[in-house]
Specification:
Layout: H1 4-7, H2 18-25, E1 33-34, H3 46-55, H4 68-78, E2 85-88, H5 91-102, E3 108-112, H6 118-125, E4 129-133, H7 142-147, E5 153-159, H8 171-180, E6 186-190, H9 205-211, E7 215-220, E8 233-236, H10 239-248, H11 256-266, H12 269-293, E9 297-298, E10 304-308, H13 315-325, E11 328-329, E12 331-332, E13 341-345, H14 349-363
Parallel strand pairs: 1-11, 3-4, 3-5, 5-6, 6-7
Antiparallel strand pairs: 2-8, 7-8, 9-10, 10-13, 12-13
Helix pairs in contact: 3-11, 4-11, 5-6, 12-14
The structure holds 4'-deoxy-4'-aminopyridoxal-5'-phosphate.
4'-deoxy-4'-aminopyridoxal-5'-phosphate (PMP) binds next to helix 5.
Organism: Collimonas fungivorans (strain Ter331)
Cofactor: pyridoxal 5'-phosphate
Protein name: Histidinol-phosphate aminotransferase
């Protein structure tokens, strides 16, 4: 059935769920450590749990299709009109909506080599051509991207920071790129890991939206906000873009528990700060060990680190399997063309230590 471009899609491979690893390797679920999906090791904020539990009383009703309260919370936090906001069932929803709205079969979408795999999936799903621009130092080469723009390029995805490599584009370079992109091409600036950036690297992408009508900034509540299981993301763009996304989204794409929890989490700055601090400490813990072991890693600005675990093409798969047998789940990145590397999410200090111990034993 269906078009060839759909049949050609390789399905998304997420981090292995804990229950699946327990079954497959005969392990106790409670002892498994999952550092595979860039989740927040603190789990959900208490404030969000309370709000969600309250919202359960109304679960017999449909959610607010327009997300009034959540948009009001985003408006208050980021100083954007509510007509500029699109809510998504995770930010993957925003990425997909943008692809459906702006690219069709016979046209092209552009993204960088080693950038988030959903850009490729979304592009394939609409039968569009992908322009994949070679990475520079495992990150985006914006000059090469600008040079690769064709007449039929309709959409450009930029992940900042990028997953799985953790690379980061400084604000000045990013804005210079936006100024170079022809105004009829939509740029999706995917900032899933924005909240982990230290204050000195934060930049005003949301205010750039005022200047660039072709810019769509995407954010998620799955990472620093600790709500991955609830599936909430949002896009910010001028109404010329937002109107179109709104026309093609599902009527109730963000459920009511998610909306309630998201409002609470957005306002919980203490939780956000705790998450960012824990992440900075964990990054140091992991990378100090990589340095000691002489392992190459890509400096990361997200809540994960990509580390090279061997020189041969099977290294990532081999070390991954050995870790799984010990109940440690990390993420192979061979599907990105990086078979010698693994991506490890920064966890709690104990979780990081367990991973480090296992890795040291495996590599010694
Ligand atoms: N963008 C990037 C760069 C990501 O790493 C992720 C999570 N893997 C997402 C978007 C999507 O996350 P979610 O759908 O949970 O918001």
């Amino acid at each position: 059935f269906g078009p060839e471009y759909v049949r050609a899609i390789a399905p998304y491979q997420g981090g292995k769920p804990i229950a699946e690893v327990a079954r497959e390797f005969g392990l106790d679920e409670a002892k498994i450590i999952k550092l595979a999906s860039n989740e927040n090791p603190l789990g959900m904020p208490e404030s969000a749990k309370v709000a969600m539990q309250k919202a359960v009383a109304d679960i017999g009703r449909y959610p607010d299709a327009n997300g009034f309260d959540l948009k009001a919370a985003i408006t208050a936090k980021y100083d954007v009109p509510s007509e500029w906001i699109t809510l998504g069932n995770g930010s993957n929803d925003i990425l997909e909506l943008a692809t459906h709205a702006f690219v069709q079969a016979g046209q092209a979408a552009m993204y960088a080599e080693y950038s988030f795999v959903v850009y490729a999936l979304a592009t394939q799903a609409v039968g569009a051509r992908a322009i994949v621009v070679k990475a520079k130092d495992y990150g985006h080469d914006l000059d090469a991207m600008a040079a690769a723009i064709t007449d039929d390029t309709k959409l450009i995805f930029i992940a900042n920071p990028n997953n799985p490599t953790g690379s980061f584009i400084p604000a000045a370079e990013l804005e210079a790129f936006l100024a170079r992109v022809p105004p009829q091409i939509v740029v999706v600036l995917d900032e899933a890991y924005n909240e982990y950036l230290p204050p000195e690297l934060q930049y005003e992408s949301i205010s750039w939206v005022r200047k660039y009508p072709n810019l769509l900034v995407s954010r998620t509540m799955s990472k620093a906000y600790g709500l991955a299981g609830l599936r909430i993301g949002f896009g910010i763009a001028q109404p010329v873009i937002t109107d179109l996304l709104n026309r093609i989204r599902q009527p109730f794409n963000v459920n009511s528990l998610a909306q309630a929890a998201a409002v609470a989490a957005l306002n919980d700055t203490a939780f956000l700060q705790r998450s960012a601090q824990l992440n900075r400490d964990g990054y140091r813990q992991l990378t100090q060990t990589f340095d000691e072991l002489g392992l190459e890693y890509v400096p990361s600005f997200g809540n994960f680190v990509m580390v090279k675990v061997g020189a041969d093409e099977a290294a990532g798969a081999r070390v991954n399997l050995a870790l799984l047998k010990q109940g440690i789940i990390v993420r192979p990145v061979a599907n990105y063309g990086l078979p010698q590397w693994l991506r490890v999410t920064i966890g709690l200090p104990d979780e990081n230590a367990a991973f480090i111990d296992a890795l040291k034993k495996l590599l010694s």
